[in-house]
Design brief:
With 291 residues, the protein is of the alpha+beta class. Helices cover 51% and strands 15% of the residues.
């Protein structure tokens, strides 16, 4: 490959990289795995006769999709033995993962719903509904007919419909509720917590068996409030907090004295918190440490 062709290829890949990383993350729910897939796609791109590629972005998306489908096989085996609730690695605004503007396509609820789809359903839904790829291109990527791909996308859409926020929370309201929730958690004020939570609120904490966390989800505003009340009584460390938007949701990062972190993301509906997602597993937080 000539130097000029190499430069052109590098430029094409660099332009596509944010979109490729965003696609891979939505497939895998892991920042680290998404970055590995994109790097593998780069190596394959370097070995490709790029002069024969009419549409580099589509070609690269096809590579990443197929790599992600392969990765999902091993990822599913890992999650079968995962200790406690599995949550996606948190993506915080300003992280170098790309395409963060559509909060509903990064929300924890949607990513969890995608986990329940078959790999092909997930691919059809992400490529068409999230990234706007036409069915003919998806069919070529998945080695399926366009009609089959339409059916895959339709089935996936029905499964995830309820997971997509119908009324995304306004930024100022989300920031205010997250600050109120953080203050109530820090003080262990069960009454204040219960007032912020929807009656059917759910708490999911992901420690992955690596660090202490609730093994099962906690359901109901009373039980969730009492959970945090109990935690506040046990925590004697001086903690600090950084407001953040995590996976398109309002929340905050907790900083422990030993340097460890945890993220808290809040799903809000009708002015109340209906879901609390806490990631404590240090293996999922490494990309946040330089922040």
């Amino acid at each position: 490959m000539s130097a000029a062709a190499s430069t052109t290829g590098e430029t094409a890949f660099a332009a596509a990289r944010p979109r490729l990383a965003a696609l891979a993350y939505r497939f895998l729910g892991s920042v680290a795995d998404a970055e590995d897939v994109v790097q593998a796609a780069w190596l394959r791109w370097r070995e490709t006769d790029q002069a024969q590629v009419a549409n580099p972005p589509a070609f690269l998306a096809r590579i990443v999709t197929r790599l992600c489908l392969d990765e999902l096989k091993s990822a599913r085996r890992k999650r079968e033995t995962y200790i406690g609730p599995w949550l996606p690695e948190p993506v915080v605004e300003q992280d170098p993962l790309g395409e963060r503007e559509a909060a509903e396509d990064l929300s924890v609820a949607l990513l969890l719903a995608l986990e329940r789809l078959s790999p092909l359903e997930r691919a059809a839904f992400l490529l068409h509904d999230v990234f706007g790829t036409d069915f003919d291109e998806i069919a070529a990527t998945l080695s399926r007919s366009p009609e089959s791909v339409r059916q895959l996308a339709a089935r996936a859409r029905n499964h995830v419909r309820e997971a997509r926020p119908r009324f995304p929370v306004a930024r100022d309201e989300g920031t205010r509720l997250a600050a109120s929730f953080q203050a109530a958690v820090a003080s262990g004020d069960a009454s204040a917590l219960k007032a912020l939570l929807a009656e059917n609120a759910i708490l999911r904490t992901d420690g992955g068996g690596v660090i202490r966390a609730a093994i099962n989800p906690v359901y109901g505003n009373d039980k969730v409030a009492r959970f945090f009340e109990g935690i506040a009584r046990k925590v004697t460390d001086e903690l600090s907090y950084t407001p953040a938007w995590i996976n398109g949701l309002p929340g905050y990062i907790t900083h422990w004295p030993d340097g460890s972190l945890q993220t808290t993301a809040l799903e809000i509906e009708s002015g109340l918190i209906r879901a609390v997602y806490i990631v404590r597993n240090p293996e999922k937080l490494g990309h946040l440490r330089p922040r």
